[in-house]
Amino acid sequence: xxxxSPAFIGELSALLGADGVRHSPAQKAxxxxxxxxxxxxxxxxxxxxxxxxxxxxxxxxxHARGVPTVPRGAGTGLAGxxxxxxxxxxxxxxxxxxxxxxxxxxxxxxxxxxxxxxxLTKAVAADGYQFAPDPxxxxxxxxxxxxxxxxxxxxxxxxxxxxxxxxxxxxxLPDGEILELSADDCGYDLVGLVTxxxxxxxxxxxxxxxxxxxxxxxxTMLVVCRTVDDATTMISAIIASGILPAALEMIDRTIxxxxxxxxxxxLPTDAEAxxxxxxxxxxxxxxxxxxxITALCREHGAVRVEAxxxxxxxxxxxxxxKKSVGTLGRLAPSHATQDGVVPRTKLPQILxxxxxxxxxxxxxxxxxxxxxxxxLHPVVLFDERDPEEVKRVLIAGGEILAxxxxxxxxxxxxxxxxIEKRDFLHLVFSPEDLDIMAKVRGAFNxxxxxxxxxxxxxxxxxxxxxxxxxxxxxxxxxxTRAAAV
Amino acid sequence: xxxxSPAFIGELSALLGADGVRHSPAQKAxxxxxxxxxxxxxxxxxxxxxxxxxxxxxxxxxHARGVPTVPRGAGTGLAGxxxxxxxxxxxxxxxxxxxxxxxxxxxxxxxxxxxxxxxLTKAVAADGYQFAPDPxxxxxxxxxxxxxxxxxxxxxxxxxxxxxxxxxxxxxLPDGEILELSADDCGYDLVGLVTxxxxxxxxxxxxxxxxxxxxxxxxTMLVVCRTVDDATTMISAIIASGILPAALEMIDRTIxxxxxxxxxxxLPTDAEAxxxxxxxxxxxxxxxxxxxITALCREHGAVRVEAxxxxxxxxxxxxxxKKSVGTLGRLAPSHATQDGVVPRTKLPQILxxxxxxxxxxxxxxxxxxxxxxxxLHPVVLFDERDPEEVKRVLIAGGEILAxxxxxxxxxxxxxxxxIEKRDFLHLVFSPEDLDIMAKVRGAFNxxxxxxxxxxxxxxxxxxxxxxxxxxxxxxxxxxTRAAAV
Lengths: 485, 485
Hints:
Alpha-Beta Plaits; Uridine Diphospho-n-acetylenolpyruvylglucosamine Reductase, domain 2; globular; homodimer; Uridine Diphospho-n-acetylenolpyruvylglucosamine Reductase, domain 3; alpha+beta; 15 helices
């Protein structure tokens, strides 16, 4: 059924009220893409439910009418996981933003999927608790989106990714069936399976998360490094010493310059790399850890180590990291944030390769990293109004991914596959691997109506509008190039 | 095909050599059950592969001949997960016990599935590393079995369960296909899904685990408590203080008496409960944590707090816990270890209910707990030669589980479902929940030939010999009783 047909829109409006349905082109324009802006496409219609019962009703209707449905939170996803098309309903959960319940004795909080990440911590901060996963998008991204992408963040190194903090999920299956999943349950770990499944198995409507104590004390240091090699040597030395920092982030010179220009934080602009290192925990022993880190960095060639002496100072150091990608708007009209993983020891090598890829395609590439995890975010600067340059960005992105995989790494650290990387799964998975994943999807989503064409390469049940012959041609080019490296 | 037929045994022997196949009743007798001894049954034939290629060949053969296959490690499982029958091949991985590789810079170790848990730590202890999950069976249980059951242990409270330490799995699908899964991979979290799936999705042949630094320092305390209520109040106070102990174990008076009689450790025999509390980490600050714990315990009525002052002393305190179940052989010819979970705050209530259940069925029940996790192990003492008493043990076990669920808990903390609890899943799962789990199983194991009848209640594809009308009758009895509570 065409989701633009008056009959379908009438049925949807009967479920949600006219206010819950958006179908004019102007209304739909803001939903043309998420933060992956290389491919834009208006949805057929946008549905804005307020309750799980409404989500269930929408899915039941779409299932009955054979209409594809694409779930979306705040649209901060960087891999096109909520990109949709004119044949589909965009199921936007942003209105489902309530904190449902807080249980401090058992350290858990339940929120609707559309609640903003930072709102979870705000709800319990006064009681000395926090929700640990803190993606840089935490002021905008939703907990449902964090679950869908198994989001990380700067503090992943110590605290783990989203799945390590999810205690339960309320999900709606593509046929409208509502299930309550608990991580405490026996049987197959369905909470773990749905987390990170990018909305291809079920729509997450409520999330129960683990709360952790706000650390008693924190020490934050900024380390100015002459070279990236120096910086990675320091990282290895710190990890080898047995200290587990709460965060271990790196930003390169391009980012430093942009941040400094935007915020005048007094950051060094002569360094090739800067490390942001944080340790947290009980006050006792923390100074010793900070001193040991400072000594190790000096030993391995640090130009300077600055320690934050108060909360304001700490915020200043973190601004450099959290606002880094945002400030790149000063350098170019568009940017595409890549997301790859390499073994920590391969960071210098991969940076050299990324620089070479940028030079080859005449693209400026800045770099921010969760360096402790080996999770890198090269940011390609470009102008999306120039279709020829967009093509080069896509090719360069593919080459960066291939380089990560060749270095023994992975295709994504935390941003997911979406549509961006779906065609690159062949680089890491065998046909048998992909076959078993397609079967797992089929167990939940047998008709492929839920978020079709995402996460997995083309199967039998994808939206035709998401087939990208051009992308496949680019992939072949990338593969040839990767093989030649 | 009958796995006892000379033709089938001939085919199997051609794959493994005569030495790799056991088919005489005397040889098979030791495989009649795992550590869940309430139901025993000889396998059709036992296959003892040495390599993944052999496992693949066995599964391919069984798949072609329609013969059910049951994987098994050391047989320490407490829920009958490797119980088999005369129509099936028991695939025993105990000969696959090699440490395949050690990569200290990246803190990972790869072992064959049949490697003993403690062997992993022994292989890296001299370098200052350990494999954290330490089930009480760690001297015998295999890493493959730990993965199959997502095993925990006393240090789960701080370090998490097995899945938190698995970086990769080599698995063989029921049709013989070999896959390499990595936790770093994008796409669905198949490592997480297979971990804890009790051999119903695939046979795990090699495991890559995370290594953690051996803690710089440890403080171990034994706290003598007047009542179980006192002990649980102390536990809540410790957790609320923000300290995360490495272990927080409880044993009751019955166990204390048995351990003391066996080992003469000088433990108190007048206490209703004893807590074993351990903190670990950097030396700095650890004394302060230990002092704080001691103060909190005293404040909440501790009769005495003993601190281990050296490694020998620490080993003595741990003996009380790790050997606790083993010593029960002094009190009765047989024992059945239950495994339930309740919210920590419900520990006193559940202990009173367990005592009442024991009294009602004239059964002596001892208790050991991972108290910090609310994971309890009531141990029912009995004589397995008395069929009437066995029946009472089964009923009491069901009632204990129902009581855990009624208290807001779960059916199993770490021992799995196996055959023991399969019929109790209805207590926590809706038919829709079980349906989606059956579909997930079907994605991997479509013919149900791999470990049939385990983990899930009866479906269409279970071994007839595992249907237990008697157990179902008991379940109904249990349900009626639970409803009456």
